[in-house]
C-alpha cells in the first residue's frame, strides 16, 4: 500500500498530541498535583518572609504576596474538597494549617513586625516537611 | 569607523530590546519545572529568529521595502488582509501582556494593584511615541534595557553546573508531566520567534535609511544581537532552575519573579528585577505598538514614519493611539498578566506559519533582492523554520488544553 508522506506527517503529529495529552488524570493524580502546587506556594511564602525579615524586599511587596498566597491556598482547598482519595482529609487539614500560617505572615507584614517571622518560619518548615512526605506517599500509592 | 559604531549600537539595542515579559516568564517556568532541560528550546528559537531578522533586514536594505509592503505587493491585498487580521489580533494580545508587565513591575515596587497602573502606563507609552523619534525608542529604551544583563551576572555569581547546562542545549524527553513540558517548550518558541520582532526590524531599517551597503552590518547585528539576547533568556532559565526548582517553587504568579534575583543580590536584586521587567516590557510595548501602526500604514499605503511629526501622518498616529487604548483595556479588565502572557505566547506559536511562509517567496524574488537572494543554506533553514512553524501551529491548541494551566 502506498502511503503519502503528508498523511504520515499528519498522523505523527496527531500521535504526539495524543501521547502528550494522556487520557486525563485520576483523583489521586489530581490530588498530588494540587499538593505540589500548595508546596510551591508555601515555599514562596517562606522565601519571601525570610527576605522580608532581612530587609531585602519592601514591606508592600511582601504584604501583597502573602495576600495572594492566602487566596491561592484557599482556592486549592476548595479544589481538593471535590476530590476523593485516602490522602485528601490529611492534605486538606495541612493546607488549612499552611493557610493559617501565611495569614499570620500577612498580619506580621501589615504590623511591620519582623520579629514574628522566625517562629512562623519554623512552623512553615515543619508543615512543608509533612506535606512533602504525604506527596511522596501519595505518589507511590497512586 | 562609522559602520563599526553602528554595529556596536545595533547589537546593544538588539540585546537590550530582546527580553520582554514572554521570554522572562516562559524561561522562568521552564527552569522552575524542568531544570535545564528546556534550554534547547531557547537555543532553537534563537537560531530561528537570527535567520528571520537577518532576512527581514536584508529585504529592507536592498529593496527599500518593509515586509508588509512586499507581502501586499507580491501576494495581493487579500493575503495581506488575512495576515493583518491574524497578526493584528496576536500582536494586540502580546501588547496587552507587555503593558501588563510594566504594570506588574510598578505593583511590585509600590504594592498598588497592577490594574491601577494601566491608564498611566498606556499614557506614558503613547506620549513617548507621540513626542519621540525612532532613535529615542530604538536606542534610548533599548540601551536602558541592558539592565536585563543582571540575569547573566547573577548566573556567574552563583557558579552553576556548566556541564549540565550545556547538556540542556540538546533536546531530550521529559521524565514527568510530558504535556506541560511540551507546552512550555512551545511557549518558549512562541516568545522567541515573535513576528513583531522581525516586522519591526524591517521598518526600523527603513527608518534608519539602510541601503545595500548595510547588508553586512545587518548580518552582524542580527546574529550578535539575537544571540546575546537569547543568552539572557537562558540566564533566566538557569536562575529559575537553581533557585526555584530546588525549593519546589513553580512560577505561577508574577509575585514570585523577584525570587530569581533577591537570593543573589539581596535588596538590589529586588530593584534590579523590577527595573528589568519594567524597562524590558516598556520597550517591547512601544515596539509592538509601532509594529501594528507600521503594518497598518504600510499595508494601506498611508504615510508612515516615527521620525515625522504626528500631524504629518494623522492616520498612522491615530492607529497607534487606538491600539494602546485597546491593549490597556485588557489590563484594566483585571485579566492576570501572567495568564495573558502565556496564552499570547502560545497563540503566537500557533499563528507562525502565516507570517513566516511568505519569507520563502520574498527572499528568492530577484525583483526585490537581486544578487542578495537567499542561497541554498538560507532556503533550507527557512524551510525547516516553516516546518517547525506548522508543527507548532498544529500542536499548540491541544497542548494549551492539556499542558496549560
Query: Judging from the principal axes of the Cα atoms, what is the shape of chain A?
Result: elongated
Strand residue percentage of chain A: under 5%
Rounded radius of gyration of chain A (Å): 21 Å
The tally of beta strands of chain B, per DSSP, is 0
Structure classification of chain B: mainly alpha
Largest interface, C-beta closer than 8 angstroms, per-chain residues? A-B, 32 and 32 residues
What proportion of the residues of chain B is helical, as a percent range? over 70%
CA-based gyration radius of chain B: 20 Å
Total beta strand runs of chain A: 0
Fraction of residues in β-strands of chain B: under 5%
* Overall mean confidence score, pLDDT of chain A: 82
Uncertain residue segments of chain B: none
Q: Sheet bearing the most strands of chain A, described? A: none
User: Number of helix segments of chain A?
Assistant: 5
Multimerization state = heterodimer
Order of helices and strands of chain A: HHHHH
So what's the overall shape of chain B?
A: globular
Content-based structural category of chain A: mainly alpha
Secondary-structure element string of chain B: HHHHHHHHHHHHHHHHHH
Mean pLDDT of chain B: 89
Helix content of chain A: over 70%
What can you see in these coordinates?
The complex is a heterodimer of chains A (142) and B (405). Chain A is built from five helices and no strands. Chain A has helices spanning 5-21, 27-53, 59-81, 88-110, 117-141. With 405 residues, chain B is mainly α. In chain B, 77% of the residues lie in helices and 0% in strands. The chains are: A mainly alpha (142), B mainly alpha (405). Chain A binds chain B through residues 13, 16-17, 19-22, 36-37, 39-41, 43-44, 46-48, 51, 54-61, 63-65, 68, 72, 132, and chain B through 107-111, 178-179, 182, 247-250, 252-253, 255-256, 258-259, 262-263, 266-267, 269-270, 391, 394-395, 398-399, 401-403.
